[in-house]
Amino acid sequence: MSLLSASAEAAPKGRLQLSGLPRLARRHPLVFIGGGLLALLIILALAAPLYASDPLNLYPFKRLQPLSAEMWLGSDNLGRDVFARTAFGARISLLVGLTSAASTVLTGLLVGIIAGYNRRFDSIAMRIMDGLMSIPTILLALALVSLTGAGIGILIVAITITHTPGTARLVRSVVLGVRERPYVEAALCGGARLPKVLWRHILPSTIPALMIQSANLCASAIMTEAGLSFLGVGVPPEIPSWGNMISSSRLYLPIAPWSVFAPGICLAVTVLAVNLLGDGLRDLFDPRATRRR
Amino acid sequence: MALYVLRRLVSTIAVMAMVGIFIFLLLRLAPGDPAAIIAGDTATPEMIANIREKLGLNEPLPVQFAHWAHSILSGNLGISIFTGRPVLELISQRLEPTISLAILTMILSVTIGVTFGILAAWRAGGLVDRTLTALATLGFSVPVFVVGFFLIYFFAIRTRWLPVQGYQPIDHGFGPWLVQLILPTMTLALVYVALIARMTRASMLEVLSEDYMRTAAAKGVSSYSMLFHHALKNAGVPILTVIGLSFAYLISGVVITETVFNIPGVGRLVVDAINNRDYPVIQGVLILASGMYVLINLAVDLAYTLIDPRIRY
Amino acid sequence: MTISRRDIIKLSVTTGAALSIPSVLRAQSTTPAARTVRMVKGNVRIFDPILTTSADTYDHALAIYDTLFGVDANFVPRPQMVGKWGVSDDQKTYTFELRDGLRFHDGSPVTAADCVASIRRWGNADSGGKVIMARARDISKKDDKTFSIVLEEPLGLLIDILAAPGGLFPAIMREKDADRPATEQVTANIGSGPLKFNEALAKPGASFTYDRNEQYVPRKERPDGFAGGKIVNIDRVIWDNIADQQTALAALQAGEIDFLRDPPFDLLPIIENDPNLALQVLNRAGDTIFLRMNCLQKPFNNVKARQAMLHLIDQEAILQAAAGSANYTRTVHSLFGVGTPYTNDENTGWFKKGGDPEKARQLFKEAGYAGEKVVMLDSTEYAVAHNANQIVAAELRKIGVNAELATTTWSELVTRRAKKEPVENGGWSIFVSSWSGANLGDPLGTPFFAANGDKAWYGWPKDDEYEAVRAKWVDTETLDERKALAREMQRRWWDFVGAIMLGNVVPPIAHRKTLTGLIGVPKAVVPMWNMRKG
Amino acid sequence: MQMQKLAGNDVLLDVRDLETHFYGEESVTRALGGISFQVRSGETLGVVGESGCGKSVTALSILRLLPKLTARTVGGEIRFHGRDLLKLSPREMRQIRGNRIAMIFQEPMTSLNPVYTVGHQIAEAVQIHTKASRSDAMAKAREMLRLVRIADPERRVNNYPHEMSGGMRQRAMIAMALACSPELLIADEPTTALDVTIQAQILRLIVDLKEHTGTAVMFITHDLGVVAETCQRVIVMYAGRIAEQASVTDLFARPAHPYTQGLMRSVPDRRHGRQRRLPEIPGIVPSLREPIVGCSFAPRCPFAIGICREKTPTLRDIGPGHAAACFRAEEVMGG
């Protein structure tokens, strides 16, 4: 009884204090941790010029140096500052990850919504999507990158093309599910124009699925970038990205582990953050999945 | 059922046609002249022109496409520009290692992934769940080639338990074949274990909260039977879907894994072909990979009926 | 075996197990591991040596084909397939007689007709060979073992050209193969060399297998470079293509392979510390890294800008980045590389330790450089050139040159460097590559040395005075004559700067200590004869 | 708690001071606030109350089927044949479930596993608790289907749940629950989700089978009319506690708790075949997350006086076999 009354007394007080971030942290710790980490990484990436030296500087006579006061995370095989490259690498990796996710979601949303509403477009678009979906991502990305040479832009395009079908299908299925709902029919019967209905009623219902999807896409894009760098067709090698840092320093792992671990750990933390955010968002939007907890 | 399969096969043909056009255009528009590469450092422009002529690279695109489509349809994937051997022969030479790797990886990741997913869902929020979620996240965030290196370092260089690289055909014996594939399979499976475990967990969580699970518990069904019979079969459809869809990802992983472990498979073949601008080989592999993907997903769709009696075609 | 091969094949055919035939063949031809050497050294993409100068193709051809002559370690030509040869008093008719016992892998004897066809095919493609073809009035067989080359004018270099390791490999093929045009790939892979190509086990891109040619009759002399007796002491060589360097090194450490051609420089200490492994320099002339500029487009159409590059380069920094260890690198001052007969010190005043960026900045200014984009083609596949590129780009940026690295694969680089257009239209300004000592010691066979503008090698430098000097090379008679000519060429070259040397790398090879008897040649290839295992 | 025991009837299930809590992210819900009651062999006990009053939680607590991570029974005893179920190992508990105590649920549409045939699911219960072979178990399944009056049991036994109607599924559920001849059947609103005509058939079936097998039944419902037709004794629950406990005749003749009275007023007139949801009592059920001071029904009670808002009334005897948790029970009963 005493336990009960104690907790019962504490509850209202606690609730008053629960507002904003702490509340999010308690109710949805995954969203809080994932989102917080990601925000921190973005800030660190943007602020890189403020605290890190030029990542392109080469010191050929200071190759593969261990950690020191001068170069906090040592140097790589061309004598470049691993700390600076890791800091600036965050920009590329996050740029690739976030931009790919954003452009994939936008393309997928466009194709998915139109396909969900227009039968004729649907059958054509979905065949094309099936086709694109059946080509293994890395192979298509390889082929695309070989079209114009390696570069950040082409990498994003490659990832977008290969990941759009999944997103488009997802949006389409949501739209197909929603458009038969009474409120949508009511809005249409009430004389609302289709674009407005799409914007007001259908778009919002795709958001939960898309939030989760973009978290997955972001992680997948960062990993694809690393994989393409390994195969030698990623971001140009002098530009630091975690993927190409890992793949170019991988060879020196036995003698200069820092040059692999620094970007490797950052990559893992980022993917972790994005995945946590994705899991958290799924729980947030689809509480059924965690109801039994 | 038969009608459904027939309809699906027809739409498969449409999909494959799309893939064909797409792949053909993509690669023909790419820069990098195979003739110049063949000719080498000392080649004169006339030599390069001669080689282009021989390879039919001078013809207009539609003509090249027509030739190509015609020969594909007659079962001829063409001749490799570089090795001068039939593409089909090159691919079939490389098929065994890749299929071995893919099948072993799938077996391993489905067994482990489904088990892990079930355990995590069973004690959702518990220690097992958290540990497995962390492992799954790790599986997603460490590049395959880094995982591969660590496995080589510990299991091959340090302990000498397993070979570093290479492949033994299965007709040299099951033992050597398996031994050669253990490390690559572990490397490649990590991501799929994570993927399948996550999907299984989510799907199981949904099923475990269903009323019929309570009914089963009220009957006195054991936890094991609850999870592995009552829940798993219901959770099977989404898990199966993930397995089918992840085939395309699997091929992507195979490309990198084959490079790391020096397995003479289709993945290596296509990477080399892309570097060499060996169009017929690239096209052959892509067509084959997409075809397999489509067929596997057809098989998955049909397998649904075995799992869920409510699905009928 | 109590069952004959025929029985097995019959059995498998009757049971419909057609797939098992290859495995039966494999089982029959399996050789004990101790007599099999596994080597990792690049990847053969093209099998016909007349189509490409690629070192890997050269390596392959070296194993399965034999040549009329071969140079020794000192670049002196020695007869190989030729038993006796002579030249007429007017120096215009050369007669060659093949030595006894030469047979192709298909069992047929090597005849004079095969040689004539092979020389013609090679002569139409190789730049040295073209000199012979231009002067030859007649190349014909006398009898089965004898043939002659009749010239319009004397050609003192004829034997040197026939033996030259710098150009295309002068393989002697069967007449029916050699009758193909030089642009059409020969796929038969049948030569008369000390090893046979095992077609059944060939897995392009993965591994190739070479078996000892039991019928090969080696020369009696001791092996020396490309010359001397080619004695094969093992049964089989498996040439594995392991694309990933890390995996290749791990495989060497684990004893899965016996030989690794290009161990990464930074990992050499690991090999030195491994009691089972050894490092060895086989190609003492090493590889000379050079930088080629596009002399047709801005800014390097101006000689001052090219001179600026000459002064800018800090070879030690580049070598440090490219190869790390000072044990295996040397600076290069001569147009003819390091350790070739023609290496000299003429007009090398430009060389300065640490480079001279100030002078370079000044020269760029004099050249009227106004911030034009300098596009450097950078292939990540070729690590040494890739690292050098990054240093050069950084040095250029430091003196205010707008350098941009264009990352490509090697195959794209090869395509793109042929473009003469400005960089805006897909052209280029700089690319980096390397030549082996064999090439730099062969100014006739190596296209790098030409400076005849449009017709020259990529970069298209043009200097008439230099060309006039170079034209005399063909008619030199003695080595001293050629050495003097080399100095003259070099004096001009460093003034108009047709290309720039970035340094010389002497890459050691790594092998298991159980593999012995490796012989060195002045080229990035490793002969498969003479070595022993066990 | 003083409970008058009726002589001659064995106590099958004896629940004492049962407390069950639900744990939310920021709160604890006292779903059961210490309830005590008994079920005797062969009797039918009705449990009535509004949604959320703790009827189903009681049932799930008895069988220990509460969701593991969010709910826990924190106090009390559940004695079945004298053994406290709360102290049994999971294995021992499984031997009780479905075998000696069986349960049927509210939602026939979702309570059967869609991927197994109905026969399989019935036979499974048989196989778990007896050493019957697969074919014997299937024979038993057919027999049970016949017993619950499903037409053509030979065919239906191989049907999947989606191939059956709601009423048929509930019959199958009953067949499954009774397959091992349990001593106690807990029926949690077995008819709520069904059509009116089917409801009556299912009720009839349960009553008949009870007579046929002698199983005790704990009948959970919100419908006093159902109670009147099927039960001998009734427990009325409100906000996680027992408000009143009596024989059916006593309860309908002299309801002693204002809440019971309120319920009765809102009973639909079954003779007109009309069906309405309970209740029509003004006010709302209090939140069980907050501590409740005084009688939990006080805010809605027309009889409430000062003491009702300060002290929590306990269940006290007000007649033979009749108890109520109300300070003014006698006045309520009289008025």
UniProtKB/TrEMBL annotation, chain A:
Membrane topology: Multi-pass membrane protein
Main location: membrane
Cellular localization per UniProt: Cell membrane
Record flagged with keyword Transmembrane helix: yes
One GO term describing the cellular component: plasma membrane
Residue ranges of domain ABC transmembrane type-1 in the record: 90-278
A biological process term (GO) from this entry: transmembrane transport
Keywords, alphabetical: Cell membrane, Membrane, Transmembrane, Transmembrane helix, Transport
Residues that span the membrane, as ranges: 30-52, 92-117, 138-161, 255-278
Similarity comment: family membership: Belongs to the binding-protein-dependent transport system permease family.
PANTHER family cross-referenced by the UniProt entry: ABC TRANSPORTER PERMEASE PROTEIN (PTHR43386:SF6), OLIGOPEPTIDE TRANSPORT SYSTEM PERMEASE PROTEIN APPC (PTHR43386)
Protein name: Peptide ABC transporter permease
The organism of origin for this protein: Microvirga vignae
Lineage summary: Bacteria, Pseudomonadati, Pseudomonadota, Alphaproteobacteria, Hyphomicrobiales
UniProtKB/TrEMBL annotation, chain B:
Gene Ontology biological process terms, A to Z: transmembrane transport
PROSITE patterns attached to this UniProt entry: ABC_TM1
Oxidoreductase listed as a keyword: no
Record GO cellular component, one term: plasma membrane
Keywords of this entry: Cell membrane, Membrane, Transmembrane, Transmembrane helix, Transport
InterPro entries: BPD_transp_1_N (IPR045621), MetI-like (IPR000515), MetI-like_sf (IPR035906)
Domain of life: Bacteria
Transmembrane portions of the chain: 9-27, 99-122, 134-157, 177-197, 235-261, 281-307
Presence of the UniProt keyword Magnesium in the record: no
Topology in the lipid bilayer: Multi-pass membrane protein
Domain ABC transmembrane type-1 residue range list: 95-304
Localization terms from the record: Cell membrane
Similarity remark: Belongs to the binding-protein-dependent transport system permease family.
Name of the protein: Peptide ABC transporter
Natural source organism: Microvirga vignae
Automatic annotation (TrEMBL), chain C:
GO BP terms in the entry: peptide transport
UniProt cross-references to Pfam families, sorted A to Z: SBP_bac_5
Limits of the Solute-binding protein family domain: 77-447
Domain of life: Bacteria
SUPFAM superfamilies: Periplasmic binding protein-like II (SSF53850)
Key words of the record: Signal
Major subcellular location class: periplasm
A GO term, aspect molecular function: peptide transmembrane transporter activity
Places the protein is found: Periplasm
Family the UniProt entry places it in: Belongs to the bacterial solute-binding protein 5 family.
Stated name of the protein: Peptide ABC transporter substrate-binding protein
Native species: Microvirga vignae
UniProtKB/TrEMBL annotation, chain D:
PROSITE patterns: ABC_TRANSPORTER_1, ABC_TRANSPORTER_2
Cleavable signal peptide: none
Keywords recorded for this protein, A-Z: ATP-binding, Cell membrane, Membrane, Nucleotide-binding, Transport
Domain ABC transporter: 15-264
UniProt subcellular location: Cell inner membrane
Keyword Coiled coil annotated: no
Family under the similarity heading: Belongs to the ABC transporter superfamily.
Listed name of the protein: Peptide ABC transporter ATP-binding protein
Species for this entry: Microvirga vignae
